[in-house]
Amino acid sequence: MSDLTFSVVDVFAEKYAAAPQLTARLRIEETSGEVVHAMALRCQVRIEPQRRKYSTDEESGLLDMFGTRERWFDTLKPFMWMQCTAMVQGFTGITEVDLVMPCTYDFEVTWSKYLHALRDDSIPVVFLFSGTVFTRGITGFGVDQIPWDRESRYPIPVSVWQDMIDHYFPNTGWLRLSRDTMESLTHYKSVRGLTTYEAAVESLLAKTGLAS
After folding, report:
1. What distance in Å separates the CA atoms of residue 20 and residue 136, rounded to the nearest whole number?
2. β-bridge mates for residue 141, sequence order
3. How far apart are the first and last CA of the chain?
4. Are residues 31 and 113 in the same domain?
5. How much is the pTM?
6. Considering the domain boundaries, does residue 87 fall inside one?
7. How far is CA 162 from CA 52, 109, 205, in A?
8. What pLDDT was estimated at residue 32?
9. CA nearest neighbour of 153 among 124, 179, 183
10. Residue 127 pLDDT > 80
């Protein structure tokens, strides 16, 4: 039976992908001497917010998720970022493979809110591995399952996330609205002769005194 260990050696932003994407470089080591013919790898990426400190500026951005700081002992709990998969080619001993991590800019997604609240330092992340390993068996191919306890922690620099977002969405944000709200905003924009939705939102903010 194969004996596998996993470690994350780097996480970087892909600059030429069709959509925002991080890539995790994984190092996989097989220590029993078994020849791995292929591996169908699955990975759950979880954020562990309790594993870092937060500045006053970051605290205000986390209020919607975790409440006030005195509640954090109960509310700062790990949550899932994403599920990823990768096919690993055959190897003996050690190999490295890229794990694609597609990202979104949707402010209503929990992990997106969290990442946008961070100013510096790192994102505390744990990679939880599972999947199927194909090896040479007695009568042909052998099939093993990756043990459930295989994991690797890696602090992703906040700057990596920020640089990726700035690359794909320079000086812009993304906001999802219901169809009814969108129709109302369109009507507001049209009757006031405004040329863009941004101008419509700025006009509404000006009426509240909150415009920058």
Report:
1. 38
2. 136
3. 62
4. yes
5. 0.81
6. yes
7. 18, 17, 26
8. 86
9. 124
10. yes
| Residue 195, pLDDT score | 87
Does residue 154 form part of some domain?
yes
- Flag whether pLDDT at 94 surpasses 60: yes
- Check if the beta carbon of residue 25 is closer than 8 Å to that of residue 8: yes
With tokens 């939880």, the residue in question is: 128
8 A C-beta contact, residue 13 and residue 49: no
Q: Tens digits of per-residue pLDDT, 33-67?
A: 888 999 999 999 999 999 999 999 999 889 988 99
Number of structural domains in the chain: 2
Whole-number pLDDT of residue 138: 65
* Domain at 148, CATH number: 2.60.40
37 part of a folded domain: yes
> Looking at the structure, do residues 89 and 118 belong to the same domain, yes or no?
yes
pLDDT exceeds cutoff 70 at 106: no
**Cβ neighbour number for residue 146 with a 10 Å cutoff:** 20
Asked whether the predicted pLDDT for residue 108 surpasses 60, the reply is no
Tokens representing 181? 């709200």
Q: Considering only CA atoms, which of 157, 150, 129, 149 is closest in space to residue 41?
A: 129
Listed in order, strand segments (DSSP E) in 48-194 are 79-91, 94-102, 122-137, 140-145, 151-157
Q: What is the C-alpha R_g of the chain?
A: 22
pLDDT of residue 26 exceeding 90 = yes
Q: Structural domain of residue 190, as residue ranges? A: 179-208
Burial code of 100-110, b = ≥16 C-beta within 10 A, e = fewer?
Answer: ebebebeeeee
Both 119 and 185 in a single domain? no
